[in-house]
Design a protein that fits this description.
Elements (H helix, E strand, L loop, with lengths): L2 H5 L16 H11 L2 H15 L6 H39 L6 E2 L2 E2 L7 H16 L1 E5 L3 E5 L15 H14 L8 H10 L18 H13 L4 H14 L6 H4 L2 H14 L5 H11 L2 E3 L5 E3 L16 H18 L3 H15 L15 E8 L7 E8 L1 H9 L2 H9 L3 H17 L1 E2 L2 E2 L10 H18 L5
Antiparallel strand pairs: 1-2, 3-4, 5-6, 7-8, 9-10
Helix pairs in contact: 2-4, 3-4, 5-6, 5-18, 6-7, 6-8, 6-18, 8-9, 8-11, 11-12, 11-13, 12-13, 13-14, 13-15, 14-16, 15-17, 15-18, 16-17
Length: about 475
């Protein structure tokens, strides 16, 4: 049924709804206005001429007072009629732009136009379908998925663990039911991309499993409903490798720890490693003298006087999100709660009145360096980029952030920062695909997933059904 059909009144003798301003005052002024402004003024003029006493200084004075009163009354009638017309026009405009269509006694109002999110989601799904890679690998079998970015020029384009995991997240986030992108095929591809000794690695990391990539894949598989026992086994392997002895470089990075923590919370919520990683985050905060010495996080969790780390909005938001999710599964003690809440306060303490161009929403990047698995004199370098505005939206939409803003009188600050972060997310996309400017692989799938999921989370929070 079309919107015109939905908005059409049914046939019948039902009366029209009362027009705006159809009240007693409106009827009186309408009756007065029926004489016309000049007629109303003349009526008052004649009345005063007959009423005023002749001893008031002669005919000139009486006629002067009557004239002034008549002109004033006519002007007042004209202003009242203009006011009613303006109010009626404003009411009509408000009804035309009301955000939710409402039913009336005479039929259904026309449905409002959709916002940008459905269009973005449809465009993203179309691009995912058109650029999915299907490769028959002689060693791994049929692989269906995506590379790291959508604009790679290699031939043939091969699915990677990172690209396919984020693509699976996107398919599940979009919730498309037409079957042209099958989650089961993507799940099978991720299992076939698993390394021989377990775990997954990024394309640039070679044959050694890395905890952040393994946790990302496990989180996507868990979300798609993969075998829980198989997931638990892989999660245990990942946690066993993620120690200070075996992974000192990864355990020293906020991004790696928060990624592993989020992945384990999805794939193995009973894992004892979750509490260990949560405590690692809580115990490795830094303080920022520029923001009331609030606790926050930087890129490094192993800062020292010789190698200090800087406060980072992206990493603080990542830590807040990870600690919030851990608290829902494990609960939290006083120290964990205080660290998480201080991180929220730090995010809300940006000194800028508007955040559309402030540093707190600028994208950032870092390098994770590890010893090369084969050549000890070389280093394995993983370039990590952070979509700061999307992480800010995620952190501000945690229940704890809203509670703190309400309890401490920072709701206006919270609303402003959230609105500007959402605007920042929306600005960085083109036809439902997000772009990382200034890089040869400018359309990474992880960025599109983070952008769409942040906008969807905000849309869910904004939704207010009619009573």
């Amino acid at each position: 049924m079309s919107q015109q059909q939905l908005g059409r009144r049914p046939a019948g003798p039902d009366p029209d709804p009362p027009a705006p301003g159809d009240s007693r005052q409106g009827r009186f002024v309408g009756w007065l206005g029926g004489f016309g402004c000049a007629a109303a003024g003349y009526a008052v003029f004649q009345s005063l001429v007959g009423v005023l006493r002749q001893q008031i200084s002669g005919d000139a004075a009486r006629y002067g007072i009557a004239t002034v009163s008549g002109v004033g009354t006519g002007l007042a009638a004209w202003l009242a009629a203009a006011l009613l017309r303006a109010r009626a026009a404003a009411d009509d405009a408000a009804q035309a732009t009301v955000p939710h269509a409402r039913g009336t006694a005479t039929g259904l109002a026309t449905a409002p136009s959709p916002g940008p999110l459905p269009t973005l989601a449809a465009a993203a799904h179309h691009t995912l379908r058109s650029e999915v890679a299907v490769v028959d690998d002689p060693d791994r079998g049929l692989l269906t998925g995506w590379p790291h970015a959508l604009d790679e020029q290699t031939e043939p384009v091969r699915p990677t663990p990172t690209g396919t995991a984020y693509g699976l997240h996107l398919v599940l986030e979009l919730g498309v039911q037409d079957g042209r992108l099958s989650p089961s095929e993507l799940v099978g591809t991720l299992w076939r991309l698993r390394l021989a000794d377990g775990g997954w690695a990024a394309r640039s990391q070679g044959s050694v499993p890395r905890p952040e990539v393994t946790a990302l894949v496990l989180g996507a598989l868990a979300r798609a409903g993969a075998d829980p026992e198989r997931l638990a086994d892989e999660a245990a392997r990942c946690a066993a490798r993620f120690t200070a002895d075996l992974e000192p470089s990864g355990l020293a990075r906020t991004h790696v720890v928060t990624t592993v923590l989020r992945g384990l919370l999805r794939a193995a919520p009973d894992s004892p490693a979750i509490a260990r990683l949560r405590d690692e985050l809580v115990d490795r905060t830094i303080t920022d003298p520029a923001r009331e010495h609030r606790r926050c996080w930087g890129p490094s969790l192993r800062a020292s006087a010789a190698h200090p780390t800087r406060p980072s909005p992206a990493h603080t938001a990542q830590a807040v999100v990870a600690l919030d999710r851990a608290a829902r599964v494990l609960g939290e003690d006083v120290n964990a709660r205080a660290a998480r809440e201080d991180g929220i306060r730090w995010l809300l303490s940006c000194p800028m009145p508007e955040h559309r161009t402030c540093a707190d929403l600028l994208n950032t990047q870092e390098e994770v360096r590890r010893p090369h698995p084969q050549d000890s004199w070389r280093q394995e370098v993983l370039f990590v980029r952070h979509f700061t505005a999307a992480w800010m939206v995620r952190a501000l939409l945690t229940p704890g952030a809203r509670e703190i803003a309400a309890a401490e009188g920072r709701e206006a600050v919270w609303h402003t920062l959230l609105a500007d972060a959402v605007a920042g997310v929306l600005r960085q996309q083109d036809d439902g695909i997000w772009n990382w400017d200034g890089h040869d692989l400018g359309r990474p799938l992880w960025m599109t997933y983070q952008g769409l999921s942040a906008l969807r989370a905000h849309a869910v929070w904004m939704y207010q059904p009619e009573a």
